[in-house]
Design brief:
Keywords: ATP-binding, Nucleotide-binding, Transport. GO terms for molecular function: ATP binding; ATP hydrolysis activity; transmembrane transporter activity. It holds the Pfam family ABC_tran. This is Putative ABC transport system ATP-binding protein. By secondary structure, the protein is an alpha/beta fold. The two termini are about 20 Å apart. The longest helix has 18 residues. The chain has a single domain, classed as P-loop containing nucleotide triphosphate hydrolases (Rossmann fold, 3-Layer(aba) Sandwich), CATH 3.40.50.300. β1 and β2 form a beta hairpin. The protein has seven helices and ten strands. The chain has a six-stranded mixed beta sheet, with helices on both faces. It is globular and about 45 Å long. The structure holds adenosine-5'-triphosphate (ATP). Adenosine-5'-triphosphate (ATP) binds next to β2 and α1.
């Protein structure tokens, strides 16, 4: 298992968002996390990615305990081992497409020339080779999400976390974005955990888990949905 969550609980004030949720994810797996609105999907994803710490329970990544790690170590691990794609790309609008994709490399002290060369390679793979010089504020939704995918993958993460990555796109564009995301993840051997409401997005996954009332109803591979 690359990621394991054991009996995760997390509340916001009086709202119990996760109630002893379990989940196990295999390396290289593409996992869709589905379930009703407000059931705890995003909270689960944020706990797995070490963005939130759970109130109780354990999160393991590659045999290391994530939830009890120091903030500094967890932040470093998140930067190097994890990639993120959210509903709205969260690109820096004042920067160009190439700048946005090169940014994680530059922050990781990769030399400028190499960072831009690697960014250009990823943009090419995502069919964005022509758009490197454009400001990201001037992209279509589908183009922006493809840039966000390039930026998330440029450091070669072990796990890509995606929260409604196609939520702001029309269905055809959304399918194209998912096709690219899943195709690249498979080529790279990247594990993908994608939260989605959309059955067409989930159809790209190897496995689907359902979150209900803060619990994962079928947390382990091979288990039927209850
Ligand atoms: N910052 C917050 N403050 C208070 N309550 C919150 C906060 N974030 C989430 N919640 C509550 O926690 C519960 C789980 O929320 P979460 O966002 O994890 O659900 P979700 O399944 O991702 O929902 P959606 O599909 O609508 O995005 C909900 O009842 C929600 O209202």
């Amino acid at each position: 298992m690359i990621i394991e969550a054991r009996r995760l609980s997390r509340s916001y004030g009086n709202t119990l968002a996760l109630r002893e949720a379990d989940l196990a994810v295999e390396a290289g797996e593409i996992l869709a996390v589905m379930g009703p609105s407000g059931s705890g999907k995003s909270t689960l994803l944020h706990c797995l990615a070490g963005i939130f710490t759970p109130d109780s329970g354990e999160v393991w990544f590659g045999g290391r305990r994530l939830d009890t790690m120091s903030d500094a170590r967890r932040t470093k691990l998140r930067r190097t081992a994890f990639g993120f794609v959210f509903q709205f790309g969260q690109l820096v609008p004042e920067l160009t497409v190439a700048d946005n994709v090169a940014l994680p490399l530059l922050l990781g002290r990769v030399r400028r020339k190499e960072a831009y060369a690697r960014a250009a390679g990823w943009l090419e793979r995502l069919g964005l080779g022509e758009l490197g010089g454009r400001r990201t504020g001037q992209l279509s939704g589908g183009q922006a999400q493809r840039v966000a995918i390039a930026r998330a993958l440029v450091l070669g993460p072990r796990v890509l976390f995606a929260d409604e990555p196609t939520g702001a796109l029309d269905s055809l564009t959304g399918e194209h974005v998912m096709e690219l995301l899943v195709g690249l993840a498979r080529e790279e051997g990247t594990t993908v955990i994608v939260v989605t409401h959309d059955a067409r997005v989930a159809a790209f996954a190897d496995r689907e888990v359902i979150v209900r009332d803060g619990q994962v109803t079928n947390p382990f591979a091979g288990q039927a949905v209850r």
